[in-house]
């Protein structure tokens, strides 16, 4: 019975991962008849497990010295599994084709908590279908061990591939489909509805995704018990250009457990969307609205409602934010550790003063391209934020070497300083290097090296 069951098992070919003409597929072991090319596409093939002994004539003629070099076969199973755990999905499929022992070890459930596929030409829909089918053999139609699927950059991923994940992987906790611009809202709705444990979702660059919500069927079914809630805590919607305030309202109402939210370059978001967000998502620790040009000081007033829970905030290139918005954040978000305000040209020394005096535990600050910040602002930073480790002043026209020396004399733990395109002398840079020995200085002064 065991032999029969072994004969019925199958191994996805590396052709699922590499096109037949790719560099990684042109070695002796990968260029077998296990794959074919139809109109330039990668075709998924399936193989039976290899025989116990290889009987090829060339292998029988191998010398005794060559046989003795296969010391890897002497390793115990647990050591082999540990080695296999470092391999990506495509290499693991190749290992399964070496011999029967490697086949059994390569399909150990502990190695298949994660599927990671990359490449623009891979037929990822077919690959996911074959892999999940193999992983579902012990538990028909359900893959209980798979918790992470990363297919970022696989541009041929479509709704069909996401539907396969939604149907077969109820224990999924992490999904990354960054740059897969062919997927739509409906496919994402299927995943979040059928994978109740999903906590990490990255749909950055998926321009067709305008919302995160349950399907209508799941919403009707779960509303009495779960209140239409989704368990997502980490959501990255960077470059989802079509996302609007109404979509953000829906996301906030369904994803109330959010702690990390990234909306970089979601250019249609306004202060009204942030107001919706703060009504429902009161546990956010990290928030990015970089390049959201319609976000202003009123949006900062809404974000300040997070109070001491907020640790990371990025408002880079939000040109409508001034000292008023910074003052809201400084007054209420006293435990802020990271602030990126690059390109917010309305911020002055007064804003930096509010920030330094109230957010004394600040570790990273980027105020590059803020031409109204001068040495006076740096002095407030130096005298209040002793834990500062990263400081970017790129293109700050009013900064001089005197301000840098004050910072270096007080912030001994400084590890990164960016003064590119700033008029600072070599002596000031040497002073920083002398007092902050671990500091990496990014500069454009050819006399300092």
TrEMBL record:
Main location: cytoplasm
Pathway the protein takes part in: Protein modification; protein ubiquitination
Pfam families hit by this protein: DUF7885, F-box-like
Single GO BP term: cell division
Region of interest (Disordered), residue spans: 1-38
Protein name (database record): F-box/LRR-repeat protein 7
Protein keywords: Cell cycle, Cell division, Cytoplasm, Cytoskeleton, Leucine-rich repeat, Mitosis, Repeat, Ubl conjugation pathway
InterPro entries for this protein: F-box-like_dom_sf (IPR036047), F-box_dom (IPR001810), FBXL15_LRR (IPR057207), Leu-rich_rpt_Cys-con_subtyp (IPR006553), LRR_dom_sf (IPR032675)
Similarity remark: Belongs to the FBXL7 family.
Biological role stated in the UniProt entry: Substrate recognition component of a SCF (SKP1-CUL1-F-box protein) E3 ubiquitin-protein ligase complex. During mitosis, it mediates the ubiquitination and subsequent proteasomal degradation of AURKA, causing mitotic arrest. It also regulates mitochondrial function by mediating the ubiquitination and proteasomal degradation of the apoptosis inhibitor BIRC5.
Oligomeric form and interacting partners: Part of the SCF (SKP1-CUL1-F-box) E3 ubiquitin-protein ligase complex SCF(FBXL7) composed of CUL1, SKP1, RBX1 and FBXL7. Interacts with AURKA; interaction takes place during mitosis but not in interphase. Interacts with BIRC5; this interaction allows BIRC5 to be polyubiquitinated by the SCF(FBXL7) E3 ubiquitin-protein ligase complex.
Source species, domain of life: Eukaryota
A single cellular component GO annotation: centrosome
Statement: the UniProt record of this protein carries the keyword rRNA-binding: no
Cell compartments where the protein resides: Cytoplasm, Cytoskeleton, Microtubule organizing center, Centrosome
Ranges of compositional bias, category Polar residues: 1-13
CDD domains: F-box_FBXL7
Domain F-box: 69-115
SMART domains tied to this protein: FBOX (SM00256), LRR_CC (SM00367)
């Amino acid at each position: 019975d065991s032999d029969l069951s072994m004969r019925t098992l199958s191994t996805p070919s590396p052709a699922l991962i590499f096109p037949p003409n790719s560099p990684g597929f042109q070695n002796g072991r990968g260029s077998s008849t296990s794959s074919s090319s139809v109109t330039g596409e990668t075709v998924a093939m399936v193989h039976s497990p290899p025989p116990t002994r290889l009987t090829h004539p060339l292998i029988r003629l191998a010398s005794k010295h060559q046989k003795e070099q296969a010391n890897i076969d002497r390793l115990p199973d647990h050591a082999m599994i540990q080695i296999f755990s470092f391999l990506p999905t495509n290499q693991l499929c190749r290992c399964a084709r070496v011999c029967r022992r490697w086949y059994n070890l390569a399909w150990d459930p502990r190695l298949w908590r994660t599927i990671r596929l990359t490449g623009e030409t891979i037929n990822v829909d077919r690959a996911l279908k074959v892999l999940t089918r193999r992983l579902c053999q012990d538990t028909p139609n359900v893959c209980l061990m798979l918790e992470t699927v990363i297919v970022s950059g696989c541009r041929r991923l479509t709704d069909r591939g996401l539907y396969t994940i939604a149907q077969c992987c109820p224990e999924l906790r992490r999904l990354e489909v960054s740059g897969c611009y062919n997927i739509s809202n409906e496919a994402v709705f299927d995943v979040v509805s059928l994978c109740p444990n999903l906590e990490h979702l990255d749909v950055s660059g998926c321009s067709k995704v305008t919302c995160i919500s349950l399907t209508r069927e799941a919403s009707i079914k779960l509303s009495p018990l779960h209140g239409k809630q989704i368990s997502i805590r980490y959501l990255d919607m960077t470059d989802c250009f079509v996302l609007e305030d109404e979509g953000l309202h829906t996301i906030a109402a369904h994803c109330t457990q959010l702690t990390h939210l990234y909306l970089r370059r979601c250019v249609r978001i306004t202060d009204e969307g942030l107001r919706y967000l703060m009504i429902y998502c009161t546990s956010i620790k990290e928030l990015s609205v970089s390049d959201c040009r319609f976000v202003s000081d009123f949006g900062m007033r809404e974000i300040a409602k997070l109070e001491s829970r907020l640790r990371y905030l990025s408002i880079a290139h939000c040109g409508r934010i001034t000292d008023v918005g910074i003052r809201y954040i400084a007054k209420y978000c006293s435990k802020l550790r990271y602030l990126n305000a690059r390109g917010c040209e309305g911020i002055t020394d007064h804003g930096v003063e509010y920030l330094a005096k109230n957010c004394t535990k600040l570790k990273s600050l980027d105020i590059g391209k803020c031409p109204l910040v001068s040495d006076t602002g740096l002095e407030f930073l130096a005298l209040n934020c002793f834990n500062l480790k990263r400081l970017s002043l790129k293109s700050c026209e009013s900064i001089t070497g005197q301000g840098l020396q004050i910072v270096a004399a007080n912030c001994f733990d400084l590890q990164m300083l960016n003064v590119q395109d700033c008029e600072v002398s070599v002596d000031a840079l040497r002073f920083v290097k002398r007092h902050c020995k671990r500091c990496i200085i990014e500069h454009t002064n050819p006399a300092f090296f």
